[in-house]
């Protein structure tokens, strides 16, 4: 992996690291830490776009009525994530909050499995996803999985008080958690686009920052593989 990355540097092709995990697991905190302490490019999730596309708050609409608005939000999430993945690099290493893969494998999958997305909507999103991943190169070097208990995320979510998310019950976070574990730990559901580094993330901020530092070389150089 290190060799691959060096080779890529020589050819000025750089492959990104995706930070993954449940809602409110601490992805933005992780990105912020590395942005402040290294010369890397950090791309946070385009959530402001999901809250305001030409005046419409898709995130709020989806939480209010997932059956009606799930497809609308997820179509737009897919577009904005594709836009992130394919944007021009500005530094030798790029870190991205989530990926087009988790939008599909976790969130779309969850809406469908929980009966909140009609099969026809799921089929259309899947066709789009398959076309994109077949025809567009979306390389990922490493997935960093911030592994939390759903309970921790629920507590953090309540503390942060994002308006749209007030309706999220613990069960929703449990479903997202299960899909993440199946994908990144058990590797039983869908393909893994890259190796996975797991960081336990139920800890307080100070311990989390310490763990990020401890894992800095593994994350930024991929040399543990
Ligand atoms: P998160 O991607 O979990 O981002 P976050 O900033 O809440 O996480 P962290 O605290 O770890 O930085 O989700 C943002 C919101 O968007 C959340 O309410 C879940 C929602 N969402 C979807 O509904 N569908 C999707 O495909 C994605 C990626 C997010
Ligand atoms: Mg975030």
TrEMBL record:
Name of the protein: Thymidine kinase 2
Residue ranges of domain Deoxynucleoside kinase in the record: 17-220
UniProt keyword annotation of ATP-binding present: yes
Gene3D superfamilies, A to Z: P-loop containing nucleotide triphosphate hydrolases
Active site: 97
Keywords: ATP-binding, Nucleotide-binding
Family membership: Belongs to the DCK/DGK family.
Species this protein is from: Cyclopterus lumpus (Lumpsucker)
Molecular function as annotated in GO: ATP binding; deoxynucleoside kinase activity
GO cellular component terms attached to this protein's record: mitochondrion
Domain of life from the UniProt record: Eukaryota
InterPro entries: DCK/DGK, Deoxyribonucleoside_kinase, DNK_dom, P-loop_NTPase
């Amino acid at each position: 992996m290190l060799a691959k990355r060096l080779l890529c540097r020589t050819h000025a092709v750089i492959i990104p690291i995706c930070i993954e995990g449940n809602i409110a697991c601490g992805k933005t905190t992780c990105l912020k830490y590395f942005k402040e302490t290294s010369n890397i490019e950090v791309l946070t999730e385009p959530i402001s776009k999901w809250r305001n596309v030409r005046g419409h708050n898709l995130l709020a609409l989806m939480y209010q009525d997932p059956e009606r608005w799930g497809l609308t939000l997820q179509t737009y999430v897919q577009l904005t994530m594709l836009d992130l993945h394919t944007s021009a690099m500005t530094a030798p290493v790029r870190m991205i909050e989530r990926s087009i893969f988790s939008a599909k494998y976790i969130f779309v999958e969850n809406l469908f499995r929980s009966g909140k997305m009609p099969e026809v909507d799921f089929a259309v999103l899947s066709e789009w996803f398959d076309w994109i991943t077949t025809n567009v190169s979306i390389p990922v070097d490493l997935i960093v999985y911030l592994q939390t208990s759903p309970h921790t995320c629920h507590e953090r979510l309540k503390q942060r008080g994002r308006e749209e998310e007030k309706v999220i019950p613990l069960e929703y976070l449990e479903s997202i958690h299960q899909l993440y574990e199946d994908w990144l730990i058990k590797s039983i559901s869908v393909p893994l686009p890259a190796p996975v580094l797991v960081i336990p993330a139920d800890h307080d901020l100070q311990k989390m920052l310490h763990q990020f530092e401890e894992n800095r070389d593994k994350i930024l150089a991929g040399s543990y593989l």
